[in-house]
Amino acid sequence: MNRSVVSLTDVSSYVPGEPVGADYYMQFAESDTLRDNLMFRAPKFRHHVGTDETAADMIEQAAQGIIERHGREVIENVDILITHTQLPDIPFCGAGGGIAHRLGMHPTTVLDLHNGGCAAFILGLNVARQLLAAGAGRTALIAIAQNAAGQVFDQPAVRGKPQASVPGDGAAVGLVTRSDHSPILDVECRTYGQYAGDMTYAVDPYRKWWQPGPGAGYIGFTDDKITKVLARGNRQVPEVALAVCHRIGVSAADIGLLVTNQPNRVFLRNWREALEVPESRHMDTFDQYGNLFGAGIPINLDRAIAQRRVSPGEVVVMAGFAHAGDFAGAAAIRWGGPPR
């Protein structure tokens, strides 16, 4: 075995609570100029984080599949922990320390990522691959928690907005090792800093997010912003996916499974059409879980593996973009089959 090869060895995931149907939001729906926008067509179902459920709680549940298949000692001996939490439980603090303690880990490196957004799993793969290949350790755990749906978008003052019915909550972890089981073939990460200010947090009446006052916070969408985000997302995800395919010497037709983030049905359709990947080879759980933000890619990959949607030896391409288009990434692995 080539010890410089780094693999995404396994993934496991967790979704909280019972499914929340689209009719739940219909009872709160308000008249809004964005009501009929394609960006906000509600999924049939999604899940909400529990009232007192923390990001560490969610990651602990998500890690159980890894523990069952590999043993608790594999988790406890992880060298590098990389986390992304959509809504940190405590201001100023990432979730990494709490997650490490909960899982009995003593990693030499803990990194809490924020800029990766809906493509955070790919960013985490890139960082883990580079650190492990450089000799910083033998194993890494990437832990992603999406917990904003039941906390931000279900606030009484927000749940009537079109944007509220789309997100869902869930968590996933990926075990990355120095091995050749399911090698990471390549990763492409691109930052578009010029768009970083286009995602805004809105409160009516206006105040900074940390200031006390009336009104609940939500994402500041307008028709103009939505048009720009649609154009960027439609372009960026196929671009980064094709860049990876080109470097590893495969065509889009050779993709065994495409796994993307899942903002809405429009993006999912446009991405597979742009890449000419049939629906049967594009993992889509939007109507089960809604927009899972950064947890979407690893949860979808876990579901695909459980459903035998990918066979040993096939190339899996993961791709996504974040926020209003300020980051995009893609990664390819050659799936080695269920962990042996």
TrEMBL record:
Keyword Acyltransferase: yes
InterPro entries: ACP_syn_III_C (IPR013747), ACP_syn_III_N (IPR013751), Thiolase-like (IPR016039)
GO biological process, one term: fatty acid biosynthetic process
KW Transferase (keyword) present: yes
UniProt GO MF annotations: 3-oxoacyl-[acyl-carrier-protein] synthase activity
Entry keywords, A to Z: Acyltransferase, Transferase
Protein name, per record: 3-oxoacyl-ACP synthase
Lineage: Bacteria, Bacillati, Actinomycetota, Actinomycetes, Mycobacteriales
